[in-house]
Amino acid sequence: MTSLLPTTAKVVELRSVFDRERAAPSSSRTEVQTESLLAIRVSRDAYAIRVSEISGLATDRKIVAFPSPISELLGVAGLRGTLVPVYSLAGLLGYGAEAGQLRWLVLCGTEEPFALAFTDFEGYVRIPQEQLYSAEQKDVTRTHVTHVARTIDMVRAVVSIPLFRETIQERCRKYSVQKER
Amino acid sequence: MWTFGRKIAAGFALAFLLLAIIGGVAFRSIGALTSTSQSVTHTHQVLEHVAEVLSLLKDVETGQRGYIITGDEAFLEPYQTGTGNVHTVIKELRELTADNANQQSRIEKMEPLITAKLTELKQTIDLRRKGNVEEVAKIVRTGEGKKDMDDLRSILSQMEREERDLLKQRADEVEAASSGAKSTIIYGTAFCLVFVMAAGLFITRSLSGQIGAAVRHVQSSSAELQSAANQQASGAKESATAMTEITTTISELLATSRQIAESAQRVAHVAEETSSAARSGDTTVQRSHESVNNVKRQVDLIVAHMLDLGKKSQQIGGILEIINELAEQTNILAINATIEASGAGDAGKRFAVVADEIRKLADRVGGSTKEIRVLIEEIRAAVNTTVMATEGGSKAVDLGARQFVEVTAALKQITELLGTTTAAAREIELSTKQQATAVEQVNVAVSNVAKAAKETEVSSGQTLQTAGQLAGLSRDLIRLIQATAGA
């Protein structure tokens, strides 16, 4: 029974923190420029996705395989009432096929939306803007990586969703040209 | 291989055979010689009789003449003697020459002539007695008496001549028989001597070789016997020593047997005391068994409660999974709410704050569920450990209970065995007393054996001495044989 006491104390602490923050006036909150990131792992490498560049996060959705000359296209999945093409994030980043279930999906864009699938989601991270560095500044030359984010415990490569979109569109165009020929 | 006796017997038999042959031949020769000598004697007898017949006839004629001339009766004495003997001699001569037909024929011829002559002589004598001298002269002058006498002389001369020839022939035969007998005796004796010498030499050499080998064998055997007698003497000495030690040991054994008898008596006493202690221990063990059974029931109850606790903690784990999933979904919803709020511009800022707070709360709930999961895992591990330990305890209690049963049975068995032990100890006591008596008898017997061993030691010494004498005798025999062989 004594081992349950810290848990009870933690519940009380959570409740008090929530109540305090809700009770505090909005002016008391510091206006610091921050960047919200989703911390993920692709083949054990630490990556981050800007929350501002995605339109949603989903899990455990059924991906129906779809035949395509684009090898990174895994299939289609139903997200928010719309069929969305799902691409392998690891494939687009140049890794091989990932081991494990691709249970996490990020939905990108509202017009011509697509989703990127990956295996490991580590959490939601918010960092100050000054801890976000450009890739050139840190001499990082990975594909689709534009920035590098320093979080509390490590440095993560921040992938660019617009670059993924460009890559996908480029592949589709090439395939259309080849098909027309 | 021929034995000595057989060789000697064979040598003597051959020598005897040769001697018998020589003796037989000599006997035959001497027999022939004797026979021939008898024939010669016979011939001499015949010759004597022939000469006697002639002499008697001459005597008769001489007596007749003297009487005729003188008329004196005294001159008739040769006539009367010759007349009386001549027929006897003729008869003997006939018998002596019975095997000779010629002589018998001559005697046949001679007898009428003798009769005629004697008749003529008797006639003349009778006439002279009567005094008729003329008549006598007349008869004499006829010459018939002379003629008869001449014929008789001729016949007797023939007989003598034939007998002389026979005598010469038989003398030659005697000479030949004598020479044959001499040759047989000389050459046979020489051959026999040579054979006897050769046989003696052969037998001597053979016997020397064989006896020498046998004597050498006897010498080596006597040496071995001497060595064995030495060993036997030393062994007998060791036996005597060992017997003395055995006697001492048996005396100690006797003392030990008496001690064992006393100990067995004490063991019987102690066994009886132990038997009563074992009976009391049996009661105590039965009480302990009941206590252990109570403990076993309590332990089984604890195990059931702990298993129930394990099931409950598993159920908590399941509920926690649901909470964790809800926290994750809440987190996703909060993130999506944040995204939507940021898309709504300033109007969504407050909503974004609420969503952020919900997300933080979901994060904390997720963290807490992880901690609770760890705690539950620890509880489950503790429950498992407790269950296992309790089951181990239950098994130990079971084992203890079984062991108590076994201990009870063992105590009963101990009680029974103690009864048996008491009886056995008494039997041991009795047996040990009997054993002590037997050991005393053995002690006496061993003392006798020790005496016998000492006597054996003395006897071995005598055997050794005898073996030495035998070895010396063998050496003497070898020297004798070698000296004989050398000679």
Report what the structure shows.
- The complex is a heterodimer of chains A (181) and B (487).
- Chain A has 181 residues and is of the alpha+beta class.
- Chain A is 24% helix and 38% strand.
- In chain A, the strands form 2 sheets. A 6-stranded mixed sheet of chain A has the order 9-1-2-12-11-10, with no helix packed on it. A 6-stranded mixed sheet of chain A has the order 3-7-8-6-5-4.
- Chain A is globular and about 65 Å long.
- Chain B is 95% helix and 0% strand.
- The longest helix of chain B is centred in the middle third of the chain and has 200 residues, at 144-343.
- The A-B interface holds A 3-4, 7, 10-11, 14, 18, 21-22, 26, 29, 36, 38, 51-52, 54-59, 123-124 and B 328-329, 331-332, 334-336, 338-339, 342-343, 350, 353, 357, 359, 361, 363-365, 368, 371-372, 375, 379.
| Helical/strand content category of chain B | mainly alpha
Report the portion of residues of chain B in β strands. Answer: under 5%
Oligomeric nature of the chains: heterodimer
Query: What's the helix-strand series of chain B?
Result: HHHHHH
Shape of chain A: globular
The class by helix and strand makeup of chain A works out as: alpha+beta
Q: Count up the helices of chain B.
A: 6
Total number of strands of chain B: 0
Distance between the termini of chain B: 26 Å
How many beta strands in the DSSP annotation of chain A?
A: 12
The overall pLDDT of chain A, averaged over residues, is: 85
Order of strands, widest sheet of chain A: 9-1-2-12-11-10
* Principal-axis shape of chain B: rod-shaped
Give helix and strand order of chain A, one letter per element, not per position: HEEEEEEHEEEEEEH
Query: Describe the biggest sheet of chain A?
Result: 6 strands, mixed
| Share of residues in helices of chain B | over 70%
Separate helix tally of chain A: 3
Uncertain parts of chain B: none
C-alpha Rg of chain A, in Å?
Answer: 20 Å
Average pLDDT over all residues of chain B: 83
- Rg of chain B is 79 Å
